[in-house]
Design brief:
Strand order of the largest sheet: 5-10-6-7-8-9
Number of helices: 2
CATH class of the largest domain: Mainly Beta
Number of strands: 10
Order of helices and strands: HEEEEEEEEEEH
Structural class: mainly beta
CATH topology of the largest domain: SH3 type barrels
Largest sheet: 6 strands, antiparallel
Length: about 240
Amino acid sequence: MGKTLVQQARGKGGPTYRSPSFRFKGIARHRSYNKAPLEGVVKDIIKCPGHSAPLARVLFSDGEESLVIAPEGIRKGESVVAGPSSKIGIGNLLPLMDVPEGTLIYNIESKPGDGGKFARAGGVFARVVMRSKTEIIVELPSKKKHSFNPACRASIGVVAGGGRKEKPFVKAGRRYYAKRAKNKLYPKVSGTSQNSVDHPFGGSSSNHKGKPTIAPKNAPPGRKVGKIRPRRVGKRK
């Protein structure tokens, strides 16, 4: 029998699962620059619901203002530099070809000019481990090593907001409101813990709770839950 499941409700685009983008302060990305380095001043440090790290509003010498991910130790009124051959300082932006080995970096570009894709969450950092003329090897926060184009840019330092996970929630209500601020579903209830009318895996009529996690081959849309069914079974001959 078909059932209305949480997995199906998420695809309808209701307000429970819609990103609260109307509260976001803006897009945090690297700004473009010419060959000459640009100096900027941190005008303010703000909090954006769409980012786990605080953002810094920087006013550059050419009059352009941009939002960047704030590193640990930066303060309002401090100066940052964006451009090649810049000094290795907290918050400065420069290409990976100019970053020495062992330097801590964050917000690394995947391709030159895309604004930054890697190591952007609060408290994380990456490290340059090897350099050559054709590639830069960087150790990501996951401890995996990734190869980057030497022209890709990155900021120097560690992303601020690293201690946000150290304080315990203590009770479920606080976690509920923390999830609600980002429109995340909480609490999450497993299918085997639900009633039979709410989920195909629900019910507790016997000591063995739940059902096989592979959906039947001809199951209706409300029953298509669990693992993907294999196309064939048995030993291949």
